[in-house]
Design brief:
357 residues; alpha+beta; eight-stranded mixed β-sheet; four-stranded antiparallel β-sheet; 14 strands; 28% helix; globular; binds N-oxalylglycine; dioxygenase; iron; IPNS-like_FE2OG_OXY; plant defense
């Protein structure tokens, strides 16, 4: 299996170039089967919870507890919430999003210098998974390692726009802090010691990567997806969505719900590894992205992940005779190989590990 991760199975086509070529019909490679298309089922008009983090570490016990409860119920019922008053500068969020929009708007030759390969995925890419003949998603992306520090290699980050590297560092430091706070809150609200999840993720050796998604305008948005249904394989995801283009959909009771981004909020979601560690008390929920014919969309997904070679398993405190462990131990490295090979395919993997324990 490692062998097939050396290179892409077909020549890479940049979706942005396709979009900008002015085609009226999308190539067959991007046409999803009818049941996966955006309009297949009616839309549900509810929204994911919004959690105000202002009182997360307040000294007022009641306010602190209330915030934890909201986080806990969002992680149980939805696997998703929008976080406001998260403490990160709105200005920094805006500048970071804009610098990435500018990066994607650079000439193709400039971006091609960062073209990635499936060995590490680091760099400028246009597909996830290496199955020959796979149906592709309508998006390009830039993927980079942020943590652990020894994997961080700014020379692989865009040198243009000239502020890009500094902004990645500045933004990374802030979102890393917020992820740490959220992991604490999740630990406490699961009844674990506040450092439980952070330590189980490898403490200082914790991993983090940034995936900047670019969803170009699409002439036939009803036939395709910007990103196919998947759950995030890692620990916790902090998503900075586009400020004025919606697109993210979350699965709830078998229906797709389009998230309406609250201005300046982060979208937080539980990844598969927290589902495993919480023994399925917290849910890693399927989500996908739809595209549109009017506007490009940019989003930044910061993935906070366990150290790659640690065994991840349900917390002993959350396992009992009535609630036996639902998953057997697996390293994140092994786990991640699945999505890197087969691409985004719903929640098949975490469910597979459930049925095979
Ligand atoms: C992801 C993801 C959602 C979005 O990158 O894993 O789910 O809105 N992105 O771009
Ligand atoms: Ni995702």
């Amino acid at each position: 299996m490692m062998n097939c991760l050396q290179s892409w199975p077909e020549p890479v086509v940049r979706v942005q170039s396709l979009s900008e070529s002015g085609i009226r019909a999308i190539p067959e490679r991007y046409i999803k089967p009818p049941s996966d298309r955006p309009g297949f089922e009616k839309q549900e008009h509810v929204d994911i919870p919004v959690v105000d983090l202002k009182n997360l570490f307040s000294h007022d016990h009641t306010l602190h507890e209330e915030t934890l409860k909201l986080i806990s119920s969002a992680c149980k019922e939805w696997g998703f919430f929008q976080a406001v008053n998260h403490g990160i500068s709105h200005e920094l969020m805006k500048r970071t999003r804009e610098v990435w929009r500018e990066f994607f708007n650079l000439p193709l030759e400039v971006k091609q210098e960062y073209a990635n390969a499936p060995t590490t995925y680091e760099g400028y890419g246009s597909r996830l998974g290496v199955q020959k003949g796979a149906i592709l998603d309508w998006s390009d992306y830039f993927f980079l390692h942020y943590l652990p520090v020894y994997l961080r290699n700014p020379s692989k980050w865009p040198s243009l726009p000239s502020s890009c590297r500094d902004l990645i560092s500045e933004y990374g430091a802030e979102v890393e802090k917020l992820c740490g706070r959220l992991l604490k809150a999740m630990s406490i609200s699961l009844g674990l010691k506040e450092d439980y999840l952070q330590n189980a993720f490898g403490g200082e050796g914790i991993g983090a990567c940034l995936r900047v998604n670019f969803y170009p305008k699409c002439p036939q948005p009803d036939l395709t997806l910007g990103l196919s249904s998947h759950s995030d394989p890692g620990g916790l995801t902090l998503l900075l969505p586009d400020h004025d283009v919606a697109g993210l959909q979350v699965r709830k009771n078998g229906k797709w719900i389009t998230v309406k981004p609250v201005p300046n909020a982060f979208i937080v979601n539980v990844g598969d590894q927290i589902q495993v560690m919480s023994n399925a008390i917290y849910k890693s929920v399927e989500h996908r992205v739809i595209v549109n014919s009017a506007k490009d969309r940019v989003s930044l997904a910061f993935f906070y992940n366990p150290k790659s070679d640690l065994l991840i398993e349900p917390a002993k405190e959350l396992v009992s005779e009535d609630r036996p462990p639902l998953y057997s131990p697996m390293t994140f490295d092994e786990y991640r190989l699945y999505i890197r090979t087969y691409g985004p395919c719903g929640k098949t993997q975490v469910e597979f590990s459930e049925s095979n324990r």
